[in-house]
Amino acid sequence: MSVVPAEVLPGGALAAEDAAPEAAALGPRARLWPSLAAVYRAQLSRARVARIPLLFVATFQSIGIMILMRGVVDGGGEAQAVVAGSAVLVVAFVALNLLAQYFGQLRASGGLDHYATLPVPPAAVVLGAAGAYASFTVPGTVVTAVFGCALFGLPLAHLWILIAVIPLAGAALAGLGAALGLLAPRPELATLLGQLGMSAALLLGVLPPERMPEAVRLARDLLPSTYGVEAFARTFGPHPDWAHVLGDLAVCGVVGVISLAVATWAYRRAAVR
Number of H helices and number of E strands within the chain? Predict the structure, then answer.
């Protein structure tokens, strides 16, 4: 019985090795922008029915505050502060208060485990949810601003500045709300922090700063929504100082980037626990 090397046999070991299929390559890593768009659409469709009634509440709340302030404020810079603060308050109610509650409940119910299994970057989850919630503020903010201008006799010529104020102030407040909801150990505490944040935006944003004590003014400067209010209020004058308007909007943008980065870190921290 002769021994034949395996190399010369057809269908031998080496031929089998050559014919073996290569290991399947891993799929490409999910990119940020497509993942962000997918999360945004999913959040928008899920929250549409539940959040629209709350948007009406936020809008009517701001309109009611302006009607009450009409008996105290006649016009001038104080009226500008009231209208601008009431408009941005709609953003604070949804982007800060409701988003803090949403992420607090998501963390407590284990919903973060679902997102952790998806092949999407953590930043896409935070930005997608923040963008969806901030989108609900657009109609309410515009309605509040138009009603306030008509109530106090302010010009409507520069309402287009809301195109910049809403997303920038919304990003700053949404990032803060998401961070509060993700860092709070209990959902009840997340709800409380969101309510306190919205109350701060109400008291420090709607009331004219000229009537506030110096200590309260310093606290007002620490609130992200203040710079959106200031940017909007400056456009009501006959000759707006656009340099200051752009400066306030730039501050909103920087705070928005920082707060969303903190929220992304908080999401990673909560998802691995």
Answer: 12, 0
| Nearest-angstrom CA–CA distance, 175 and 178 | 5
Are 225 and 199 a contacting pair, CB within 8 Å?
A: no
Angle (deg, nearest 10), helices 137-152 and 76-91? 160
The Cβ-side half-sphere exposure at 243, using a 13 Å CA radius, reads: 0
**Residue whose structure tokens are 């203040």:** 226
Q: What is the CA radius of gyration of the chain?
A: 26
Q: What DSSP letter does each residue of 44-113 carry, written as one string?
A: HHHHHHHHHHHHHHHHHHHHHHHHHHHTT--SHHHHHHHHHHHHHHHHIIIIIIIHHHHHHHHHHTTHHH
What are the average pLDDT values for consecutive 10-residue runs of the chain, which has 273 residues?
50 47 50 82 72 80 92 85 94 89 88 78 86 85 95 94 94 92 92 91 84 85 90 92 95 93 90 70
Task: Write out the two tokens for 136.
Answer: 């609900």
* 3-class SS shares of the chain: helix, strand, coil, % to 5: 80, 0, 20
- For residues 230 and 238, give the distance between their C-alpha atoms in angstroms, rounded to a whole number: 16
Q: Burial-class residue 205 by CB neighbours within 10 Å (0-12, 13-18, 19+).
A: buried
Contact 262, 109 (CB under 8 A): no
Q: What is the pTM of this model?
A: 0.83
C-beta separation of 26 from 69 below 8 A: no
Instruction: Tell me how far apart the terminal alpha carbons of the chain are, to the nearest angstrom.
Output: 66
The pair phi, psi for residue 207, each rounded to 5°, is -70, 140
Q: Chain centroid to CA 171: how far?
A: 4
